[in-house]
Amino acid sequence: MKIRFEPPADVQAASDETVSRELAFDDTIFGEWQNAHAHRLLVKDPGSGSISVDSGEIIDELVSPIDGLRFCAPLRESTDGRYVELVMEPTPTTTPSEETVVARLPKPAQGEISGITEAIADD
């Protein structure tokens, strides 16, 4: 059995700009919390910490909920410049190729966030 989901004919497809502003995260590592004033990703138990989705700032120190993995600091800008990425790596650190992006936050409208590094694109 195949099920195909397509938007109704009267609905326009999302533009690249709309898609680039979407939050994406690994739901085995983070939970999402939001109220009228704040939007955060919270590290699930047994880890701890939180990050602001609105500003990209780490609110509370991030501690991995998964043995053998740790959060890399600082956050970094994605190679296409659309996102701010949060990365995890094995402990002890081995090679950069083993890094895993676990969250992509929409880049804030003001652009720069303190503590962000630019990603180096592979050539």
Verbal overview:
The chain has 123 residues and is mainly β. β4 and β5 (58-63) form a beta hairpin. It is 4% helix and 37% strand. Strands 1, 6, 7, 8, 9 and 10 form a 6-stranded mixed β-sheet that branches. Strands 2-3-4-5 form a 4-stranded antiparallel β-sheet, with no helix packed on it. It has one helix spanning 16-20; strands spanning 24-25, 30-34, 39-43, 48-52, 58-63, 69-71, 76-77, 83-90, 100-106, 117-118. The chain contains 1 helix and 10 strands; from the N terminus they run αββββββββββ.
Task: Furnish the topology, listing elements before pairings.
Elements: H1 16-20, E1 24-25, E2 30-34, E3 39-43, E4 48-52, E5 58-63, E6 69-71, E7 76-77, E8 83-90, E9 100-106, E10 117-118
Parallel strand pairs: 7-10
Antiparallel strand pairs: 1-9, 2-3, 3-4, 4-5, 6-8, 7-8, 8-9
Low-confidence stretches: 15-20, 116-123
How do the helices and strands follow one another from N- to C-terminus? HEEEEEEEEEE
Total DSSP helices:
1
Determine the N-to-C terminus distance. Answer: 42 Å
Structural class: mainly beta
Mean pLDDT: 77
What labels would you give this structure?
single chain; mainly beta; six-stranded mixed β-sheet; four-stranded antiparallel β-sheet; 10 strands; 37% strand; disordered C terminus
